[in-house]
Write a structure and sequence with these properties.
Structural class: alpha/beta
Largest sheet: 9 strands, mixed
Length: about 525
């Protein structure tokens, strides 16, 4: 999935997260990378951050059990930790042991042994952790320095605070590695501000949340944050995911484990080896690969998921859309990112599939986003929101209606090539959708020229089932500059006269030059 960007030091990001500490830590860690590729170094750094997290959580629980030893508690009983969903960390994997050995030439073997011991004693992490710190190409002096650097994160904090700090660092590092890797890095990371738009609009308070192309798990992290921010209970949602790239799947497992999020994340190709074949999700949140031409669609021509038409073998966009629909519960809703071409393309039958989905009254809302939001691509993208049943009583009865939002003018540049949606931008988009669909206490909805428009299915038919918001929202109102009309007209006429006089002067000069060259009349 996608991308990353430099932070504003010691300040607040446009989405409200304080990043000064994370930015300084990244700068220090990146300096230790030397000539190692970001894709390779990613696992070195993130693996150590993960190890630090589980060791901190373990140490906090160990101290609590030590204090209760007189009451029969045993700090060395693995079951005491598993009962509280804390990973058991054997002595050879505990952070103080690693830090003490950081200056030693054999630190690579020590870290590998720690990772192997953790996987051995915690089956849910089997095959997840990186275990190649002893390889000759990894500078052991720099590895020891990185261990010392990571040692300062959350040290001495209670496990819950340590998890928050380490989780923020982990997410920030994910974004920075995505930026450093460029297009390839986009396969595992979706910028958090884009994920927040999806999550804030859908508002998945409870039920089953599914992402069949989950990358490093950002959709799930934001869903949990949303529930916490609205005083909900984390246990009210169940999380299911799938990721085809093995190394990215490992990142997702670590990303969720570092936050204590219980999730069923499977490894495998969602199209050809669906690991959740019977799942009917209340919420689908996803950012599938854009315009994927290598999804081997020719092997699935008669698949039962293609209810609205067989997707072209050369582009998986509408295969993903129908895969999402297939996994929706009767009252389920989906929100996902697609390339802009999905809104208007008529190639290889895509227009007919889109038409069938519109006529089935599944399209709830379409959002056009600005360009430069992703690290893997500069192409502008859109958000699709689908509803299995628009008259299920959860919100306003809106059958035969679709909301169009044009957010292409929103966002702020964070550097020369990256744009980010701010808190205010996200709130404006989500608030319009909530008011339109009739969320409780969301206020009344009204069309805003140039930004949002509620259209009927008949309106969409008139536009040939094209779903580009710009076709529906119209032009925004011109800004009033306060200059009286008569004064403005006099000024503009004077400017016009000056330009006409200048044009006449230039015409005369050109004619004279042509005469001098023997081409005059």
């Amino acid at each position: 999935m996608a991308r990353g960007k430099p932070a504003k030091a010691n300040g607040a990001r446009g989405n409200g997260d304080t990043v000064g500490f994370e930015a300084k830590l990244w700068a220090a860690a990146d300096a230790l990378r030397n000539n190692m590729d970001a894709a390779e170094y990613k696992h070195v750094a993130l693996g150590l951050i993960f190890l630090k997290y589980i060791s901190d959580a373990f140490a906090a629980k160990h101290a609590a059990l030590e204090a209760e030893r007189a009451q029969g508690a045993d700090p060395e009983d693995p079951d005491e930790y598993r009962a509280d969903n804390i990973f058991w960390v054997p002595p050879e994997a505990r952070w103080p042991h690693l830090k003490a050995n950081a200056p030693q030439p054999a630190i690579g073997q020590t870290v590998d042994a720690a990772m192997e011991a953790i996987e051995r004693d915690n089956p849910s992490l089997k095959g997840v952790l990186p275990k190649d710190y002893a390889r000759p190409g990894l500078d052991k002096a720099r590895l020891g320095q990185l261990i010392n650097l990571v040692s300062d994160i959350g040290l001495g904090s209670p496990s819950d605070r340590a998890r928050d700090v380490l989780g923020r660092v982990y997410e920030y590092f994910l974004s920075q590695f995505a930026s450093a890797e460029g297009k390839k890095g986009g396969q595992f990371y979706t910028p958090s501000h884009v994920v927040r738009v999806l999550v804030e609009m859908l508002a998945p308070y409870q039920g089953r949340v599914f992402d069949p192309c989950c990358g490093s798990g950002g959709m799930f992290v934001q869903s949990e944050r949303f529930i916490e921010a609205h005083q909900g209970r984390i246990g009210d949602i169940s999380i299911y995911g799938q990721e085809s790239n093995y190394t990215t799947w490992r990142l997702a497992k670590m990303n969720l484990a570092i936050r204590g999020i219980d999730a069923q994340i499977a490894h495998g190709d969602s199209f050809h080896t669906d690991r959740h074949p019977d799942l009917k999700a209340d919420w689908v949140l996803a950012n599938p690969p854009f315009n994927d031409s290598d999804w081997r669609g020719d092997l699935l021509r008669d698949d039962r998921r293609w209810v609205y038409g067989a997707p072209p073998a050369g582009n998986a966009n509408f295969a993903w859309v129908q895969h999402f629909i297939h996994h929706l519960a009767p009252h389920g809703m989906a929100g996902f990112v697609l390339a802009n071409g999905s809104m208007s393309s008529n190639q290889s039958g895509e227009g007919e599939i889109r038409k069938a989905i519109v006529e089935a009254d599944l399209v709830d809302c379409m959002v056009a986003l600005p360009g430069q939001l992703f690290y893997a691509t500069q192409i502008p993208v859109c958000l699709w929101f689908l509803a299995r049943d628009k008259a299920n009583g959860r919100f306003r009865h809106r059958s035969g209606e679709t909301l169009f939002i044009d957010a292409r003018k929103l966002g702020a540049m964070t550097d020369r090539v990256h744009r980010e949606l701010t808190d205010a931008d996200i709130a404006r988009i989500a608030s319009a959708y909530h008011a339109w669909r009739g969320d409780e206490n969301a206020g009344d909805y009204a069309d805003v020229p140039g930004f949002c428009k509620s259209a009927t299915t008949d309106d969409i038919r008139k536009h040939g089932h094209v779903l580009t918001p710009g076709r529906y929202v119209g032009a925004g109102a011109a800004e009033e500059d306060g200059e009286p009309f008569d004064d403005k007209m006099r000024r503009l006429v004077a400017v016009l006269r000056e330009q006409q006089a200048e044009a006449a002067r230039l015409d005369a000069a050109i004619t004279e030059n042509l005469r001098g060259l023997g081409y005059g009349g």
